[in-house]
Amino acid sequence: MTDQQQEKAVETVPEPRETVEIPAVEPPAPAESPAAVPAPPLLPPTAFQEPEQAQEPDPLPVPVKKDRRVLRAVLRWSAAVVVFAVVGAGTAYGITGMKRTDVPGLGTASDGRWDYPTLTRPPLPKGSPGPLAEANRTGSHFADLRALVLPAPKGATGDKALDGSDGWLATKVFLAEFSAADDRTELAQKLTDDGLRHIAARGWTTPDGTHTRIYLLQFDTATVADGLVSGNLAGYASPTYPVNGADSYEPDDDFPDAAKVTSVSSVPYAEVRPYGAGQVRLAFVTAGDTVAMIVQSRKGEANPVPFQQTVTLQSQLLG
C-alpha cells in the first residue's frame, strides 16, 4: 500500500462519538379513579346520551397486617357514607316528585286549602296606571271590575243568584246580604250618597259546605272607598251592619300578617260562639277606588284557612 493510500484510509476512519446520558423516563401517573373525575355537566331534559363505560378502578394495595383493622374501619365508614348519600338522594327525589299535598308538614289537603285556578290580572288600557301607582291619584281601577272578581276554586258549585245582568249585580241583591231591614235602608242611602258606580260579584259552594260570596263595589275615588269602610262598614270590634246568619262578631286576630297584601287594607271578623246553625266569617278589603266584601259561612264551624286564602287572593287581584 502506498503512502497516499495509507493516509486516505486513515481519514475514512470515523472518530469516536461522545457518550450521551439518557435520563430515565418515569412511568406515567396512574389515572384518577372514577370517583375523583368531575361529573359531566347535566344535559337539558330533552337531551340524552349513552353513559360512558366506567373505568376499572386501580387495585387497592395489599395492606400490611398491622393496618387491617384500620382498613376495615375505613371501609365500614365509606359504606355508611354511600348508604346515606343514596338515601338522601332518594328522599330529595321523592319530595320533588310528589305533590305538595303529599309531603308531611307541607300538606294543604288537611288544612282545607282550596285549589284555585291560575290567577291573572286583566290587562290595563294602554297608558293607564295601576290602582296603587303614585301617578294614579284617585286610585282608579281602569281594568274591567268584573274581571277582578276572584274565580271559584276547582270543584265548587257556582251561585247563579250573584251572576247579575251582564256581570253587574243590582244593589238590592247586595243589600239582601244584611239581616236587618233598617240596616239595608240606611246602607242603601250611604251608597247613593257616595256615588256607587256598580257592583261585580261572584259566589260558590265547595263540597265541604262552605258558601262564599264576594262583592266588589266601585266608587269614583279611593278616598270615598276608604271612608265607606272606616266610617260605616267596619266597626272597631265588629261590623256595623251584621250579615245574615250572624249577629255577634269579634276581630279575627288569628288572621296572619303574612296573608295580608301590602298597600291593600283588610279588616277580617269572625262570628263568636254560639254559632247556631253555622259560623260566619266576614272581611272588608279596600284597594284604591274599590271595596270588597267577602263572606263565608258553613254549618258548624267555618274553616279559617280557606277564608284567609280567599281574602289574600282577592286582595292580590285588586292590588
Account of the 3D structure:
25% of the residues are buried. A seven-stranded antiparallel beta sheet has the order 1-2-3-7-6-5-4. 26% of the residues lie in helices and 15% in strands. With 319 residues, it is an alpha+beta fold. It contains six helices and seven strands. The protein has helices spanning 3-11, 68-97, 171-175, 181-193, 222-233, 304-318; strands spanning 157-158, 198-205, 211-218, 249-251, 265-271, 278-287, 290-299.
Concise overview:
It contains six helices and seven strands, in the order ααβααββαββββα. It is α+β, with helices and mostly antiparallel strands and 319 residues long. It has a seven-stranded antiparallel beta sheet.
Write the layout of secondary structure elements.
Elements: H1 3-11, H2 68-97, E1 157-158, H3 171-175, H4 181-193, E2 198-205, E3 211-218, H5 222-233, E4 249-251, E5 265-271, E6 278-287, E7 290-299, H6 304-318
Antiparallel strand pairs: 1-2, 2-3, 3-7, 4-5, 5-6, 6-7
